[in-house]
Design goal:
With about 300 residues, the protein is an alpha/beta fold. It has one domain: 3-Layer(aba) Sandwich (Rossmann fold). The chain contains 9 helices and 8 strands. An 8-stranded mixed sheet has the order 1-2-4-3-5-6-7-8, with helices on both faces. The termini are far apart.
Length: about 300
């Protein structure tokens, strides 16, 4: 990547990559199962002694539960939804909840939702909403305060978190105290320009179109897409929980995220937006960069403040 605004430390990290980012759209949908293999490997960060991990079923949905080690009493909770373009990824391979669980601290339920194209919309949203309701119904058994449960997710998981918040509001379901949307995938119409269609950006416009078509079929980009599939389609955002939303300056989700945050603010939803200058999609996966460490610390602090109000 040669964009003049690219953060220098991130540029160095990209240059040092042994294997460049894969352009998923170069594969047929039939080849996706093979692309998922690396996402089933449990990273070393899962062995962090600060957390205790268990695997359970939230109704019919597999979930991974993270608890702070050695912490007793009732804690707040976080329903976390992993990324992967709705095509790849798993709760097993996503170690982001480790830090949130240890540093918030909270009990985190990470959702292993079904993936497209084998399971098109609404499978993913149904799974996340089922896990969300299960979390509340089982809060006492989990040692969680039901009045302090937040929603969060990264990338595709951020879009699913936004969709789950919309669905909970519209179904008069359990209300999240907060939503933390990390570079969320919100809009099947693809608002950011083609200048971001570069594999080094981490997630390209081409991959984005490919993913939405896997989820929505021929409806992708058309007039009849549900806001539960693509939250940017929602026309009414009032009544949603306080929101923290971050996105990179150099990524395909930038414009849809900025627009969603602005619309939340206009709807009266308390919203904190941070556009990280010089960052591409997935920048936080390069922890040697100061920008990555700062951004993760910032969102963790926002979560902590929401779960432990003064």
């Amino acid at each position: 990547m040669t964009h003049p605004n690219l953060d220098p430390e991130l540029a160095a990290s990209l240059k040092a990559l042994e294997t460049p980012f894969e352009e998923l759209s170069s594969r047929s949908y039939a080849e996706l199962p093979a692309a998922r293999e690396p996402w089933l490997v449990e990273p070393a960060a899962m062995a962090d002694p600060r957390v205790v991990i268990s695997d359970e079923l939230a109704g019919s949905v597999p979930v991974r539960i993270f608890r702070p080690a050695g912490v007793s009493g009732v804690l707040p909770g976080l329903l976390w939804i992993h990324g992967g373009g709705l095509l790849v990824g798993s709760a097993r391979s996503d170690s982001a909840p480790v830090g949130y669980t240890a540093e918030a601290p909270c009990v985190t339920v990470s959702v292993d939702y079904r993936l497209a194209p084998e399971h098109p919309y609404p499978a993913q949203v149904d799974d996340c909403f089922e896990a969300w309701c299960w979390f509340f119904d089982n809060a006492a058994a989990l040692g969680v305060d039901p009045a302090r449960i937040a929603l969060g997710g990264g990338s595709a998981g951020g879009g699913l978190a936004a969709a789950t918040a919309l669905r909970a509001r519209d179904a008069d379901g359990p209300s999240p105290v907060f939503q933390m949307l990390v570079a969320p995938m919100l809009d099947d119409r693809g608002r950011t320009g083609a200048e971001f269609d570069e594999p080094a950006m981490g997630w390209t416009a081409s991959s984005n179109r490919y993913a939405w078509r896997a989820v929505l079929g021929d409806a992708a980009g058309g007039p009849s897409v549900s806001p539960y599939a693509a939250p940017a389609r929602a026309t009414e955002l009032a009544g949603l929980p306080p929101t923290y939303l971050c996105v990179g300056e150099l990524e395909v989700f930038r414009d849809e995220c900025v627009d969603y945050a602005a619309r939340l603010l206009r709807a009266g939803v308390s919203t904190e937006l941070h556009v990280f200058a010089g960052a591409f999609h997935g920048w936080e996966f390069f922890p040697s960069a100061a920008l990555s460490r700062r951004s993760v610390a910032e969102r963790t602090d926002a979560l902590r403040r929401a779960l432990y109000p003064a």
